[in-house]
Structures are given as C-alpha cells and as structure tokens.
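Deliverable D5.2: sample structural annotation.
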Amino acid sequence: MKLEDRVMRFIARRHSVVILRSELAQLGSPAQLSRVLSNLVKTKKLVRVSVGIYAKTRLNKFTHELAPAATFEEIAAEVFRKPGINIAHGKLARDYNASKTTQVPMLAIVDTGRRRITRRISLGSRFITYERSGAHRRKEQQP
C-alpha cells in the first residue's frame, strides 16, 4: 500500500477536522510525509493551516468544490485544543457577548492570557491575531 493511501486512510478515521503532522510521523519518513502532504494540499484533499497543521476538506454543496470541513473559528479552536493551549475570546468579542457594544468584531482575535504565542494560523485571507490580557507584572516587594 502506498504511503498516500495509508495517510488518507489515517485521516479518514479521525473524527477531528485538524490533522497534526506529528500524528502522521509513524507512517513514514519526514521527506516522504512532506511529499505526500504537499501532494494532498495540491489536490485540495487537505488545507494547510500552519506549519505542520492541516485541515480536512469536504465537497461544498453549493459550489461543488472542495472546501475546509469546518469554519475558520472551529479549526482555530481545535488547533489550540489539541496541544492543550487555553485561549479565550479577545476583548472586542467579550464586550460584544456581554452586550457592552453593538459593534460586531470582524477580526479573529484570541486572548492567550500570559502565554506568548507567535504561530501564524491562517486559512485563505483570514488569520488569528493574539492579545495578552495577563501581561507579566513584577511582584510588589514587601518591606
């Protein structure tokens, strides 16, 4: 069985939309995986979200073309959930959800707390922007 067939079977058995390259590592060498993954992206069976992160695709019933199998927000949330990174909505989305404003936030902004994240997560023209609410502060020295 070819490596591409094994990778496709592995991906089809996963319930999650997001596939990490590290999950495929046991199937073949890094060079072979790179070749297979780039071929799957070219044929639009997968969509590249970030370095080593891919998303499944499915047939869009309106355009009859392959499109990501979930919304950008769902894919981004799963990307952070897989390695166990806790995130929250950004300040603009929190204000909107708390009815403090009627302005609908258009940008995907996530609050990472004290954690510094620089990974670029994008899908098409949309991308994640990070904000840190719990910026590092020095402890007050007590006399």
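Annotation notes: The longest strand covers residues 53-59. The first helix runs from residue 3 to 13.
The annotation will be released with the project's public dataset once the embargo ends.
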